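> @MW can you paste both from yesterday?
MW: sure, first one:
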Amino acid sequence: MFYKQLIFIFFINIQLYYSQQTASVWYDTDKGLPQNSVKDIIKDKYGFIWISTENGLVRYDGNNFVTYNHLKFKNNRFTSFLGNAKKDTIYNTTAYNENIALISKRNVKLLNQKSGCLQRVIRESRSNFIFTKNAIPEPFENTDFFVYFDKKNYYHLFHNGTIQYKDHTIATLKNLHKNYILDTFCFNQNIFIISRSLKKIIKISPAQITYLNAPEVFFKNDIKVYWSQINNQSFIIQNHSLYRIHYECDSFSLKKLADYDLNKNSLSSIYHDEVNNKLYLGTLSDGLNVIKFNNFHVANRSDKSYENIFHSLLPFENDKVINSLGDVYNENGLVKKYHFNTTDHFFLLYDNQQNILVQRESGLLRFLKNSDYSKKEKLALKNEPSRAWKLRNYYVATFHKPILKSTLSFYKDSGFKNPFLQFSLPNIVTTVHEYDHDKWLVGTRDALYIIEAPNFSPKKISTASLHVREITKTKDGNVWIMTQGNGFFLYQKDQLIKMPVDENRYLLFSHTILEDKKGFFWISTNNGLFKVLKSSLLQYAKDRKNMPSYYRYSKEDGFNTNEFNGGCSPSAAALPNGNFVFPSIKGLLFFDPEKIRSYYPKNFFLERVIFYDCKSNIQGQNINLENNFYKAVIVVDVPYYTNRANLVIEGKLKGGKNEKWERVGSDGKYYISNLQPGQYQLMVRVLASPQGKYIYKTININVKHLFYQILIFKLFIIFIISILILKLIKFRLKRQILKKKELEEIITVRTRKLSKTVSTLEYTKEQLRKESLQQKKLLETISHDIITPIKYLSITAQKLYETDEHDRYIQKKYFESFYKSSVEFYNFVKTLKEYAEIYNISEKNEKYNVYEVVEAKKALFEVAAKEQNTRIINNIKDPTYSKKNQNVIAVIIHNLIDNAIKNTTDGSIEISTSEDSRTFFLEVKDTGKGMSKEQMTYYEKLQDNIENEKLVLQKYSLGLHLILQLLMMINGKIEFKNNTPKGTVVSIKIKKYD
């Protein structure tokens, strides 16, 4: 019973694994191999496949075969591999052990000195057969075998059944047939022998002999065992089927890999590449057979090609789809027919009760789920619908008119009666999608429209002609527009954002999108199925510099065709069991997106160059090219074993004419020609992930110079010519140079003096012009303003003269008036004198204390201030230093205090200063009667245009006119504002640096 259970489980494993479809390719001397006898196969630690033949060792990267048979071997007839691939030490011997080759660092070299392990193996080979793999066709009789794992673990298997570990015997096994070695295989460092008589597998380890149970198939008489020590893989072939043996915890299991006929092909070596899901089968005469396992499944209706053209489909049950004909398919093919007999293959839909609606003549047929779709009802419509859709809350049908116009009708239920909305569109409607509540996107053969409340009028979104095939909303709410001939778009924030297409532009004809659980989009086209990370598309929408990476699946991956069908509704299906289904012109493609791998390189190498001359060479990371080299081909070696159309290799030559990334062909060859002598650097990058990450590597290129192209030689020639020219010039112009120097010195001195004189004159001229202008304006003002007081004095004197000498009261009154007018006239003339002497003030730039200057002026005006019952307050910090002209500052302070005293009674006058890094501030604040707005406006206007404004000395304070002139001399400004509650604040700003 136990064995029956094992056999039952075993066959279940075979069935599950064998559900993968396979693609087989043969390679022989016509397709890259140097010879058709493939003795052994191994993958090194860098990912390259190595093949042992009778005409050299061959390295395979998934595309190219590189043969190593040019070394100085006595013969190129290689045998089996041994060693350790993980430690990068793989050995192979030629026939008769004449030479040993070491495969390391992706290269082959002749090994002259034998290491300890090789010495032991070579020594044992003289009397024993070195057992590293099973050569299936070879029988052995009376032959002793040596199994070498490492220097501490090795066995002798004698033909009489004696097992020896190192130098001592473990046991002698009885009842073994004479060719028991053909039923022997190994895992790790344990040896296993199949005993048919005992129905056991004998396990040989250093410590003991163990008898293990195994599935019944191991003990069949027709099985053949294959084992490879270096690959640590074991297989059996039984009844034309190849199985992989798996061993874990003293338990064996088998998985079927492929069908194989030993009688047809002489199998000699096997390697199963689990990483790339491939099986390599070497033969003695037919070359190399590479079998690829695919997780794509194609379901067909029959063997007639026209019956295998599929269009619209719906998910049906857990793992099936149903088409408009009523045919139900799973990944293995047709499973049931409901005979819908529809007249249109381009649409079908479920209603709310999971009934299926299809087109039939001038209406729709509804097949009822509660009758297992055996009963139907007809929905009569006025016209034949060309498409029908079920939206979230509504049902929609479109009707084509003979003149390529469409009527779009919206219904509230699946009865398709009495539409509540109807629209007319100028072209054939291809798709409708509910964008939001009472908001729909409509695609036609020439445009994309939006219809929304409240007016429900179609509004065109696309500016250029756009043949819309399908509108899809993904899980994140983004809307994608698929088109015919224009690629696909993201509709976001009322904008159409065009997505970039693949290099071959296959994505221009995009049909539909399905999103998997890992965030990848699967896009069907007229030429292949594409996979792209959704986040990379959204990132591109934000920043056009971030290009997405597309991965394409094609016939090479197990399809019957690259052409998928679109323009139908729906044009793909996501099943409850996780499978995706896409219709094509040659069957339905089923697959589980979780099981479909995208392959990206893990590394690549720049170490091979094809030269077309005998002197150019490569040394490490440096390529040395001759000056007149014709061309060179740098080979980018990338171990990549799937569709190389998905291999993205780009190169950029730094120092060349075009320093841009250029796509390198799938053969990995980068061509160099017509380079000028010099140093260059080739940068190569390979796409290593769907997120757009790259692996970068560089190699230096040196193009040799000829002797006359060397910079030193050119500089030497220039130097010699320059010396000769200089000698001639020096000889002819020696006297002229001396005279020129003397003349230049004279001219320089005179020019300097003249420039200084001109600058002084210009400054003096400007100063004189200003003085003259001010003096002229002063004279004009004096001549005008002095007449009135003189005339008043004259009139007063005349009245005094005519007054009766006895009338003392009148006399006293006139004398008082005369006195006051004389004082005012005196002050006026005195101020005029100060104003006229502005430009006579000497400049002093010594450092002085402003506080002391103010104190001096305060003492001067103290008596006058007391008469007005006014206090003068010096708020300036002692000391406060300045370097601005002390005389000018003193005059300004004097006039400001004077004006303040004249206009302030029973109040106070405050003087204060402040400064920053650029400006010195002086402020005089009084509580007098204050200045009028008119006065402030006059002085501000005069300050901004003092040279052109007319002076009004009589009406306005002459002292302030004087201050304005002084401020102009020291690059200062004055500002006026009203004090609170009364009085005036005069602020003076003086720049520290001119």
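MW: second:
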Amino acid sequence: MVDVPRVPEQWRPASGNTPEERTEGEYPEVRTSRFSVLGPVRAWHGTVQLNTGSPMQRALLAALLLRDGRTATASELIDALWGDEPPSQALAAVRTYASRLRKVLPAGVLLSESGGYAVRVAEGALDLTVAEDLWAAAEKARGVGDLCRARSLVNKALGLWDGEPLANVPGPYADTQRTRLEEWQLQLVESRLDMDLEQGCHAEAVSELTALTAAHPLRERLRELLMLALYRSGRQAEALAVYADTRRLLADELGVDPRPGLKELQQRILQADPGLTEPSAAAPEPATTVVRPAQLPATVPDFTGRKSFVAELSDILSTAEGRVMAVSALAGIGGVGKTTLAVHVAHVARTHFPDGQLYVDLQGAGSRAAEPETVLGAFLRALGTADSAIPDSLEERAALYRSVLDGRRVLVLLDNARDAAQVRPLLPGMEGCAALVTSRVRMVDLAGAHLVDLDVMSPEEALQLFTKIVGEERVASERDAALDVVAACGFLPLAIRIAASRLAARRTWTVSTLAAKLADERRRLDELQAGDLAVKATFELGYGQLEPAQARAFRLLGLADGPDLSLAAAAAVLDLSLEETEDLLEALVDTSLIESAAPGRYRYHDLVRLYARACAERDEQPPSERDAAMSRLLDFYLASAARVYAIERPGDRTVEHLEVTPDVGLEFDDGAKAFDWLHAEAACILACVQQSLAPNSLRRAVDLILAAKDLAESGASSHRYEAATRAARDVAATVGDALAEGRARVSLAQVLNKVGRFDAAAAELELAAGLALESGDPWTNGNSLNEQGIVNNCINQPAVGEEQLLRAIGVFRADGNRHSEASALCNLSRALLLMGRTSKSIDLARQGMAIYSDLGVTFRLANAKYALGLGLSQAGRHSEALDQLTDALGIFAENRQRLWQGTTHYRIAQVHFSDRRAAQAAQHAEQALSTGCVGGDWMRANVLTILGRALHSLGQVDRAQACWREALAIHEAAGAPEAAQVRELLEPVAAA
């Protein structure tokens, strides 16, 4: 059962002793007065805060406010202010305080009634009553299953607290009410955390619960929630350790055992009870879901025919409730209308799936089919799962997906699937849910699926579709010609739609004109090879009717490998203005040859892209124009990414070492827009890199990797960035381009450093250093030395790192690269710190910060503040260290540097622990674990070590040991020297 917070009864209104009602018209000032008791006792008139006087005056005001409008007699007020030992002049003092308050408060607020006093407060003018109303609304929302709203309302209620309630208010009544308010606040926090866990926010909750259990060690409900949050975060050993710590603490402090609920949870964790992945409380059946995705694409308004299929599939979906899972798989050639039919049926059946509909294009017909784990991540987010709660592996994501869908009725439309293997992890698998799958292949190996083979339309259906698009008037007089047209289209829906759209857009054409244009036999379907030839013939219908400029655009834009193209990128490919390009693209959209994915973005269907490339190979003259188009796209991305780089890193001469391009790239108003563009184009940029590794474009491709390095640093695109960098390195090595190979190896090492693969990074950097000498490239020379210094700092060889970083500083200074010089100074600061040269380390960090400040850098200033914070911490100047690290944390967060955020949380945890603030240390360490850190598993083990130290100081010995054992396993697997330190922490335990 969930512990439900309850407002103490004496805070609620009671009948009787209510002062005579006065209208707001009589005292309009009442409406503009506000009061607070969930913090200091304060009063406002409009926006002006009033002086409520001495502590005793505030005590009187608080006593009246907490009576909710009821009159308090003089004797009640004396008891409230002084208790059993009032002064001899207590009554006179009460009257004096009341008189002074009346002079301060607006007219009509403080009333005298029957020898007592009352405070008249307008509705919603006292923070406590607002909090009570918010809680009541939250209970109601939770009762009908709307956890999102309930959680938001509780958070609003908690946000009304401003420190200690009734702060600095004396008197026994204030003491009693303060205790009750603090208890209610804690109950609200517990309720909100319980809802956090029900919504899958396990990782975020661990950090807060760790801090709360440290502050309230005997509160078993918090311990129970912490155990559950840890278990759902995959940290079973720590969850069990929390129970052991709790049992020992209760025995030592109170001489009792944990309550039955806590014991039961321990047993369920030991047994790996599957029910623990479900919501923690038995809530009523929700009338509405937490998050109800509605992802179905719009159905076409001119949907035609397929009546038997619609009826068949609708019947299956409408009976999904009560069945394990209904799966229908539609197969057919490209353009046969699988997606159109599936979307239409899904819309018809959506009322049977009140908890939502999910949709994804699996891109199975192309060379880069969607990965099931990526799709599951998107589905989980759509269902309300926090990013931090989504596991990494396919198996874990699939299991969580099924758990989230348990008890819900959701329809999943899996469009354009490659094969059954791609589909299986995405099937909901739960009673009441259903899946619709479309694919070019017949999924005979998809167990339990209802298979539907979709053929071309009947002549009657084909003519109906053609007529709906073209118009009854134009078709009625040329029915035979219309039949010729749909026959030439092979009765394939997509072909009919393309041909009809062209005719509809040309009012001067007749249907016979279109029929004559389609008479060529190359547009006829080959029944024996319907899968490919029918698709090609279909697209040929639209392509053959394009104007020359439109046809050129169709051919060249299809050469790009990215998932879509922005208008600006398309203009670069075509070497045209934005206006001209947009006209061509919109014309192609009108013919259904491309799609408008979003305003200003365009994409090809997989098969259409393949056809466009075949057309380019066949029709583009001279053939060199294909290479020139892709070269222009590469230039556009390189020039634009270089602008982003320069905005983020003023004074960094890297951009001056990049290949010169004729394209000047996009201009950005500010850093935020530049950063947004880079991340929006990430997939396209990295696809362009991998597509541009021919010898004549290799260096520009590698330079694009350099310019787009923020994609690796943010952690969001690091895997794709690494793959592109490896591909560039391998090609450069094969063709013997020392400059390109050296830069690619440094870029790869930077990625490897961030995930803690230091040995691999060191190997790349050693080769890069030799290549720098061969090519004479100052960028590779300086950056390889700088990265080598970072590696040696991480593997605890600071003396070697110092020598490398000093050389790097020399190279950067000779190159006039002050930005990179500042970076190397900050890294050198870290090396000296590891060798105990604290004072010099601080000085170097300040030098780096000064350079960044001179250059007007904000983003990289965080790295200098981070380095300075480490030095100040080691010098024992903890308050100054926290200031610097907190500033760095804010800058990293603002610039979406997630891994650096986590790393900074780790360093803040170290400072708090050094300053004997174990609870704060544990909280920041938990945030580091949930966010992730630079350094991968190695850094995770370090975070677990400091978390264990903090927990041990808080008396949570068993959980501390669990953290240390996990840290030791990571370090031992990597052969890291830190393993010895962790063993020393565990040895006293083993000896005991």
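> thanks! The longest strand covers residues 411-417.
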